[in-house]
Design goal:
By secondary structure, the protein is mainly beta. It has one helix and six strands; from the N terminus they run βββαβββ. It has a six-stranded antiparallel beta barrel.
Length: 92
């Protein structure tokens, strides 16, 4: 099933150490989840980014501060392949 992902990364840190993040990409991914993922959040998610460009792949693969928002939860890429297959791990 197709789901929306919001991908952001850190653009700066203030003097108190708070990170400022910027939306980098809004995209879609094929993810196989139960009918209501909000009721059963997962520690990891496997899927495939749809229509990933070489530029987007490079930016996501080589930037350490990338976060992915999915169903109001924050995840990090633990695996991202050139064909768009990925695994997300929870940060909460």
């Amino acid at each position: 099933m197709e789901h929306s992902l919001l991908i952001n990364w850190m653009v700066g840190v203030n003097s108190q150490g708070d990170a400022f993040r910027s939306l980098f990409h809004t995209g879609a991914a094929e993810i196989d989840l139960p009918p209501c993922p909000q009721l059963s959040p997962r520690a990891s998610i496997d899927g495939k980014l749809l229509s990933i460009s070489p530029q987007l792949f490079g930016a996501l693969k080589f930037n350490q501060d990338v976060q992915v928002m999915f169903d109001a939860r924050v995840y990090n890429f633990s695996r991202l392949e050139k064909d768009g297959n990925f695994q997300l791990l929870k940060t909460w």
